Amino acid sequence: MSDVINHLYFCPFLYKDGSSLYRAFLLREFSNENLDFWLAVEEYKNSKPQKMAAKAQQIYNDFVAVKATKQVNLDAETRILTLANIQSDIADQFAFDRAQRRTQHMMERDSYLRFLQSELFLELAHPERYY
Length: 131
Hints:
Elements (H helix, E strand, L loop, with lengths): L1 H14 L2 H11 L4 H13 L3 H16 L11 H12 L9 H13 L1 H6 L2 H7 L1 H4 L1
Helix pairs in contact: 3-4, 3-6, 4-5
């Protein structure tokens, strides 16, 4: 049940100004690559079809490939499936679905929970306690 609740708060939060605050928290922890990947995939899904193949390759190179500059923590099977998806003749908006779901799940269960308990978030959510 808590996973469902986290998901309900997590996704809308990222589409609003909250992603900047969450990013600031992740930067302090040196772990912003998961959020950067998640947001890059969201942008990719809304790309024009003629630009999808190039964007998919860039996202793969930056986040999914072994030894990528901002490599996200994914299992080998997900990496292989994602590579197969972007190398298929038709790059579509679903190419990163599995990798994005796994990354989101990690954030929901780890860094996002820490963020919700951080002073950074609590000061914003409950200013009356701090001022």
